[in-house]
UniProtKB/TrEMBL annotation:
It comes from the Eukaryota. Residues 88-467 form the Aminotransferase class I/classII large domain. Its cofactor is pyridoxal 5'-phosphate. This is Arylformamidase. GO terms for cellular component: mitochondrion. The keyword Transferase applies. InterPro entries: Aminotransferase_I/II_large (IPR004839), Kynurenine-oxoglutarate_AT (IPR051326), NHTrfase_class1_PyrdxlP-BS (IPR004838), PyrdxlP-dep_Trfase (IPR015424), PyrdxlP-dep_Trfase_major (IPR015421), PyrdxlP-dep_Trfase_small (IPR015422). Keywords: Aminotransferase, Pyridoxal phosphate, Transferase. Transmembrane segments: none annotated.
Length: 478
């Protein structure tokens, strides 16, 4: 019998041969992407290549179809559109204010120590593992073993990718259930790991033309269970939820947990906003009876400390789940950057005693209330978020002229993208079209919502309030 390595080698070889043959034709994708006209002086990519370069160009392999498209991710697309007109950026969920001084200093001090500038162990720096264990042991209702139950990652995103990579197998059609709207990285990360996302949308049980609660967005548990197949491996649960702001109740978590037990599934709990809830308690599903053994809980220093650019996150779970996750992480990035792990560890240590976490939570609650007031003033209803830092605004009352000119890249992505773009161009405020958080057949469920982030400065929110005054003249009732 051929070994797995030999089979892998043969398939790589045969793929390489195919590339070689196909490269004799100009790649179709390249032809489709070719510019319609070239500016004077620019190389004309559609013109035949000079004879001397043909042979080398023919050897270029095509990119994987998975990455070959020109489609930008929603964050880059909306950031670019906002920057073009200098719009107030309430789109991507990054903080527009600087991290607190003690947090910046923690990173600076780490950089100044030679030992903190070399590779970290793949699992993570002991100082950070210790802080994660200290914070999450009480939240998960058990004493975490930092030597086996935690791994540090290059952001929560890479923690998620590592879990998918560890538990999905290429060629076996493994399925992962996502609850929509679902953060846009989940589905591609699942596909990269060889799996297939299966979508179950949250259902809105209230009239969306009024201000409603994020708790009005519910998972139909029968629908969730019906989505499970013999190929299902994982249910992804995001609480507090991006972009709805829903904080799943203990009862909802127990029902999801019961489904995972009945079908022997893993739960991947994306809890990166665990520290930001408003008048509700965040409950970790891993703290519920019997859930620990089947759950990986993912967290983020970027969100916890307001340093999304540091790319430090973690995964917590039983040894049996963290060991393969760590093995995948080791092959994806090997280790997470050392100085910022140390910076996070030091900042988390200080934050326990300096009151940072509660002060930060109150600040976000204040910003949330401010953004809700802004939309109350202009007359658009929204979903009151109980957690995280996003506001879903229902902009169905905004009149977008039929003949409004949209760039093709926006227009082709449907009405929800057009609406978000209209906000940027006409009102100078950028948000994210939540359609991006739905699979194609469910995109209509994004309706006329636009997501606005409130992890922004008071000046930014004030500027948005002024800019949005123009919106009052675009309401349907006018
Ligand atoms: N989590 C953030 C958001 O939803 C940023 C996501 C990203 O840029 N990939 O806005």
């Amino acid at each position: 019998m051929r070994s797995a390595f030999q089979q892998h080698f043969r398939s790589v070889l045969s793929a390489a041969r195919k590339v070689h043959c196909r490269a004799k034709q100009p790649p179709a994708a390249a032809a489709a992407m070719a510019p319609l006209s070239s500016k004077a002086g620019d190389p004309d990519l559609t013109a035949p290549a000079p004879a001397s370069t043909i042979s080398s160009q023919r050897c270029l392999p095509e990119p994987s179809p998975f990455y070959a498209g020109s489609g930008l991710d929603v964050w880059t697309m909306m950031n670019q559109a906002a920057a073009e007109v200098g719009a107030v950026n309430l789109g991507q969920g990054f903080m527009s204010f600087p991290p607190q001084c003690f947090i910046r200093r923690a990173a600076q001090e780490a950089l100044d120590q030679n030992v903190h500038n070399q590779y970290a162990p793949p699992r993570g720096r002991p100082a950070l593992l210790e802080q994660i264990a200290a914070r999450f042991s009480p939240r998960l209702g058990r004493q975490l073993d930092q030597a086996s139950e935690i791994s540090v990652h290059a952001g929560a995103n890479e923690a998620l990718l590592s879990v998918f990579t560890a538990f999905l197998t290429h060629g076996q059609d493994h399925e992962v259930i996502l609850m929509e709207p679902a953060f846009d990285q989940y589905a591609p990360n699942i596909a990269m790991a060889g799996g297939k996302p299966v979508y179950v949308p949250l259902r809105v049980l209230a009239a969306a033309d009024k201000v409603i609660s994020s708790d009005d967005w519910k998972i139909d548990m029968a629908e969730l269970e019906a989505a499970v197949s013999p190929k299902t491996r994982i249910i992804v649960l995001n609480t507090p939820h991006n972009p709805v702001g829903k904080v799943f109740t203990r009862d909802e978590l127990a029902q999801i947990g019961a489904i995972s037990e009945r079908h022997n599934l893993l739960i991947l709990a994306d809890e990166v906003y665990e520290h930001l809830t408003y008048g509700r308690d965040h409950v970790s599903i891993a703290s519920l009876p019997r859930m620990w053994e089947r759950t990986v809980t993912v967290g983020s220093a970027g969100k916890l400390l307001g340093v999304t650019g540091w790319r430090v996150g973690w995964a917590i779970g039983p040894r049996a789940l963290i060991q393969p996750t760590l093995a995948a992480h080791t092959r994806i990035v090997f280790t997470t950057n050392t100085p910022l792990q140390e910076g996070v560890a030091s900042a988390m240590r200080q934050a326990v005693s300096n009151g940072f976490y509660e002060a930060q939570r109150q600040e976000y609650e204040r910003r949330r209330n401010r953004l809700m007031e802004i939309f109350d003033d202009v007359g658009l209803p929204y979903v009151v978020p109980d957690g995280a830092y996003y506001l879903l605004v229902n902009a169905s009352a905004v009149r977008v002229p039929q003949d409004y000119l949209f760039p093709e890249a926006i227009s082709s992505r449907g009405p929800n993208f057009r609406l978000a773009y209209f906000f940027i161009r006409e009102f100078g405020v950028s948000g994210i079209p939540p359609a991006e958080f739905y699979c194609e057949p469910h995109r209509y469920l994004a309706g006329d919502y636009v997501r606005f982030a409130f992890c922004k400065t008071d000046e930014g929110l004030d500027a948005a309030a002024v800019a949005l005054q123009k919106l009052k003249h675009h309401l349907q009732s006018e």
